[in-house]
């Protein structure tokens, strides 16, 4: 009964677009549907039910979670509910107990031993990366190692540091043949002036995962700080930041966590708090502040990197998205996404004219696969795929002229088949 009602609703209002707040509240919850139906996660039906928890246009195959993740209905519901509540009873400040609860909920996503004390809630990963790069003590001539495949979230603040503080940036080209090749390339760039290695955990260009445990060992052995842009990794690959010896890790909540837009988390290893100075501070950054006495003590946790009024509804939304994903299971979702991305990778390999740019070793591949049709301009290929309602992402960075496809929990085999048929067609034309 519940299932029939659910399917009817899926094919109705949600498919047509946005839902009213009332309709959102009437929407069946995934937990209830799964309990009532006893559906198994290895069935296509299960993933159809999951897809039904998103407002995504049914006619479009949304294959760009690496660009922006769609949020499930419980997250949207919670976000709207909390915005309404704030407007009914406006109150300055945010609920400290809930704020802490969010950090407790997010910490296991970053690793089994990560403490909520080590997390600051930010607006985006970009904000977290800026907190790190602006908070370290730089001297002219200090060196930073990064890759040539970084997002502007890393490149822009680094180049600004170079302009303003005359740091030296050394770059390596990612090795897509061998994971360890990346560690070797980084090692070759280290000099006595190297202070920091900052790279993506998973690149936005090729969906390439770097061997962070190996690179972390290298950084530690040479007394170099290790910072990661984890935007494309969290929710895609299991994280264990303690094991990898990472000092700083910045993520956004709005990609593979499927959370509210403009949410982020910054991890700062607790024994780095004194080394990383907060640069924007205000209410909530301190444990004690007394202008008359001229005293200030920063907050003892990573809350020292937070400041001022928050839009707490955003984090209620992110927490609800995390609950939704944990209800299904991160490993269940990863296995599903992996099935699709690996099937795509394999099938692409048999299409004449296709060049696959993502890593050769499956261990370093993720649910984002990048390819191009060789010997031609891929802009029209991308345009054509969008025309055919396949929402992928063009990769113009580093003159790659390629196309990136992301597979997430709302994607399914029918979309994969449709995508492959169209690529076949375009490769022949
Ligand atoms: C690797 C990487 N880093 C950083 C960002 C920027 O994320 P945000 O705008 O949420 O800070 C992106 C966005 O696509 C990304 O792919």
Question: Topology, please?
Answer:
Blueprint: H1 2-16, H2 21-26, H3 30-37, H4 44-51, E1 61-62, H5 73-88, H6 96-110, E2 119-122, H7 125-135, E3 143-147, H8 152-165, E4 168-172, H9 179-189, E5 194-200, H10 212-221, E6 225-229, H11 241-244, E7 248-252, E8 264-268, E9 286-290, E10 295-298, H12 312-328, H13 330-348, E11 354-356, E12 368-373, H14 379-387, E13 390-391, E14 393-395, E15 402-406, H15 413-428
Parallel strand pairs: 1-13, 3-4, 3-5, 5-6, 6-7
Antiparallel strand pairs: 2-8, 7-8, 9-10, 11-12, 12-15, 14-15
The structure holds pyridoxal-5'-phosphate.
Radius of gyration: 22 Å
Tell me the distance between the termini.
Answer: 48 Å
Order of helices and strands: HHHHEHHEHEHEHEHEHEEEEHHEEHEEEH
What percentage of the residues does DSSP assign to strands (E)? 15-25%
The tally of helices reads 15
Apparent shape:
globular
Number of E-state strands: 15
What is the name of the CATH class of the domain at 96-321? Alpha Beta
Largest sheet, described in full?
Answer: 7 strands, mixed
Mean pLDDT: 93
What ranges have pLDDT less than 50 throughout 5 or more consecutive residues? 1-17
**CATH level 4 superfamily of the domain at 96-321:** Type I PLP-dependent aspartate aminotransferase-like (Major domain)
